[in-house]
Every structure is written in structure tokens, then in C-alpha cells.
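Hi R.,

Here's the chain you asked about this morning:
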Amino acid sequence: MSAQEPARPEPRAWESWSTPPGVPDRLQLELLAADAAERAAALLAGRGGAPDDPLIDAVRLLATPAGAPHLEVAARLTGVPGDELRRLVLAHRHGGAGGVAAALAATPCDAEETATATAEVRRRQSFAVAELSTAAGEITDTAAGVRLRRGPDERWYPFTLARAQWWPAAGANASAGAAYQAALRARSLRTPNG
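And the predicted structure, written out as C-alpha cells:
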């Protein structure tokens, strides 16, 4: 028998497969499959389901390490500018779906709850002369550069003013006073230009 070169295996069809037009690429499919598996495991463990809002669900995906590279595609598909999506991703990192909902809009509450929350904030203000503006589910201390928004989970979410925009901060709390303190801490850590 003569020494022959080993036969090369025939290429398998899927090894040269390319994404057809209009179909998510492999990385997007992997992200969606991993997310579906994670949500299924959460449901089976009794930890609840996904938000009903597609934008909040998209932001939740973008807030994962695997989701970050898909921000521009998400911006195109949702019609939400990339900078706004980044702000919403930050809101998700600080407060989950409730944080994103609060970043989009305050959840209204009755006048009595607003008055109670405002009184809590006034007790925590450094300068009692600073005026607070209130709306249903929102309290703003313009002088301090701090805003609180009530979320759908009945927690108050802190925001700080920077570059003419309200940015989510960590420290959501059922107590408006505690959320206000968290916002003041976040504001004090900001650089003078930011």
C-alpha cells in the first residue's frame, strides 16, 4: 500500500452560511436566545416575566454586557436616538424596568402622596429657602440640580442635572427623602463640567 494523503472532509453547508438580508445576524440571534433562556429560567423559578413595554424590554437587553454592541441597531429599530438609549440604559442599571419607566415619565400620584413626599424632601434640604416645584409624581429642586420621579413600583427615582439634561442616579427608594439624599450624593460626585 502506498502512503496517501488523508482525504479532506467535504465542507459542511452551515460552515459557509451567511446571514440572509433582513435576518438578524448571528450575534443578535445569540443575544436573543440567551435572553429567552434567562427569562424562561426566571419564569420557572417564579421571578416574574418581562415588561409589557417593548422599549423597556429593548433597554433591558442593551443593559447587558452582550447587548451593548447593539445600541446603534436598537436606535435605528426603535427610532430612539442613541444618546437617549444610553441614558435609558443607565436608568436600567440604576433601577431596572422601574428606573427606565421613571426616566421616560413620572408615574402620577395623588395630591396627598405628593404633599407627603415634598415634606420629606423639604426636611432634607440644605437650604430651606430653595423652592421645590412639584407635579403629579415629580419633585424638582432646581437650585440643587435634583429631580425625583415616582416610578410604577411606587419608588422615587433620583435624577441629577448635567449638560442641560436630567440623568438617572442610583438610590431609588420608597422614601422621597432618601431618594433626594441619594440624588444630592450623586450630584456632589459630578465633576464641575459634568
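The chain is about 45% helix and 10% strand.

Let me know if you need anything else.
M.
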